[in-house]
Amino acid sequence: MSFSDLFDSEFKQRNKGHFSAIVRVALADEKFAPEEKMFLDKLAVRLEISPEEYTEILENPLKYPINAPYLHEQRLERLYDLARMVHVDHHLGDKQELLLRKIGVALGFNGENVNYIIAKALSLVDKKVDLDAFLFEMQNMHK
After folding, report:
1. pLDDT tens, position by position, 33-75
2. Are 77 and 135 in contact (CB under 8 A)?
3. Is 17 exposed, middle or buried (0-12, 13-18, 19+ CB in 10 A)?
């Protein structure tokens, strides 16, 4: 296996893990709203998830581990996607919020601050900020 094949393989695995985490959040209330399904469809294309992988992940989202990115900005990008999934149906259930906190910790956010971080992320998504504004606000929330 060449180095580039190894990199591509790791990249695909990270994307599958990220996508499966989002599916877990979407399924926390045990059903997909039409808006959630549309969001998943678009995200799958963006993350280069094949139709076969898409079906497999929907059937068993726990199969793939959550791989926390090393870079803080990449963690925030994943949090942005997760917060948008929760917000897409405009209904944050207790299970979704709890799962979002757990995934936040799994992504590498400090357990002591995760409630504040999740609340800030959801607040920004509620304001319909784009990714750049989200990253700026999250990186500068203590200034």
Report:
1. 777 788 788 888 888 889 999 999 999 988 888 777 788 898 8
2. yes
3. buried
